[in-house]
Amino acid sequence: MKKLEAHEVALAKVFSSDYEFVVPDYQRPYTWEPAQATQLLADLVEAVDRDPEDPYFLGSVVLVKRPDEPLAEVIDGQQRLTTLTILLAVLRELTEDPRDADNLDILIWEPGNTILDLDSRPRLRLRPRDEEFFRKHVQARGGVDLLHPEAKYPNDAQARIAANARALRDALASSTPAQRLALAKAVVQRTFLVMVSTSDLTSAYRIFSVMNSRGVELSPADIFKSQVIGALPDHDKARYAEKWEDLEADLGREAFADLFSHIRMVVLKYRARQQLLTEFGDHVLKGFLDEGKAAVFVDDVLEPYGSAYRDILTRDHQSLSQATEVNDWLRRLHLLDNFDWQAPALWALKTHRNDGSWLVGFLRRLDRLGAWMLVTRCNAQARGQRIAKLLQELQDGLGLGSPALDLDADERAELRAKLDGDVYRSAAVRKYVLLRLNELVSDPFVAQDVKIVTVEHVLPQSPSAGCEWREVFTESDRERWTHRLANLVLLSRTKNSAAGNLDFAAKRDKYFAGGKSPSYGLTTEVLREETWTPDVLDARQERLVGALAEHWELRVS
């Protein structure tokens, strides 16, 4: 039976020769931001004002450590150990008394003792990629002074270390020497960590997973990493940890976490019923770990799906043929107001990565399916059921012939009818449809920043009494045309609201002040019209709806 130990330890003993902390290179990087570092400082400052006998507990640290050896691999707790070391270094740099500076330095760096066979070494060693930086700019005397606000750092962890060191120094700079000394004493004497240690790595990861599934702020991806890397042989840990972290850095932490949700959908083929930590862990990851295939999960699942997800997010798929067309369809799919399409797109890009022609055909059909679900306002449950059916049919080998990927006659008719109706009444629908339509009528098409796009009426919603609009359009005309495609244009927010209820000629000129053509082909067409009448709108409506119907192949035979 593996021995488990847990002790409350004051920081004076935490940062002593009793422990030689090492953050394994398969651990996640340092992630604390200045807000968290300064909050820790504020909590410690508050502790100074309390009863001197009242201890302050900072939580627990999980270690792989033999009872008779100082070497301790940090499985959980590196954020606090790193931030505390930064704080001690800042206090050391600000201390005017050389003796106090020496005493603080001993907590950061083991000076060595030839009689006790202790080597000179840092108390805490970060992951290899950050170790030298941390030693130079935090642990070495004067290192904090070398950190400049405008400096560029090779990774986010080093940037956060630098930012936190500057933030803590700024926060303490106005304190008096007596206040900083009192703080140093409180940190060293009255601050405690619960040191949980076991000599067995698997046991340590089990403890880590249990503790962090009960409220400590780690993402499910962090816990999956601990399970996967912890299950690997020692000689593979560093290599696979680097693969994992490179992918996380490439996608970004938030997108990397989303990747697991999409993989869950691809594998399980139903919308989430439980928390990702439970559902992915029990129904996706567990099978690999139980069979000793942690490396297979990284090589055959995480990396290829991660590469596919990068293509989706960046719209920068690379292939021998039709890469531009693939990326164009990915750009169009990103205009949808949901992410349901990403799971089947992920499957497609992983499974048919080098078949550009197949991908173009699939993404074109997926785009039409997404358009139907958005424009007809399918609810989340209906979308989830349709995507789940599609994923099952893809797994069954139906491919481009999957019925769930197609629209039947009723669905095509429904989409066309919605496009011919009052599309303006739904904010999500109107912007999406006009953006898609704008691409069809623009020559050449230039992609715009969709965040600054707004939809505007030509015939105003509430024309003032006695104006030209009320002469040209009867009440029934206005009811028929106000919110339909023919009467809508795209504008940038910088031009929006300038025209208001002006008559058509004046409003047209306001849109295009100075004779400059607007950025949107759909809006440029208004320049060709001398008048804006029900007959003009009738012809325009037929042409615009027809263009969308042809694009999405909405013919009903």
Architecture overview:
By secondary structure, the protein is α/β, with parallel strands linked by helices. Helix 13 crosses helix 15 (342-351). The protein has a six-stranded mixed beta sheet with strand order 1-8-3-4-2-7, with helices on both faces. The chain has a two-stranded antiparallel sheet with strand order 5-6. The protein is built from 24 helices and ten strands.
What is the number of strand segments? Answer: 10
Largest sheet: 6 strands, mixed
What overall form do the CA principal axes indicate?
elongated
Strand content: 5-15%
Number of helices: 24
Rg, rounded, reads 31 Å
Distance between the termini: 73 Å
* Neighbour order of strands in the largest sheet: 1-8-3-4-2-7
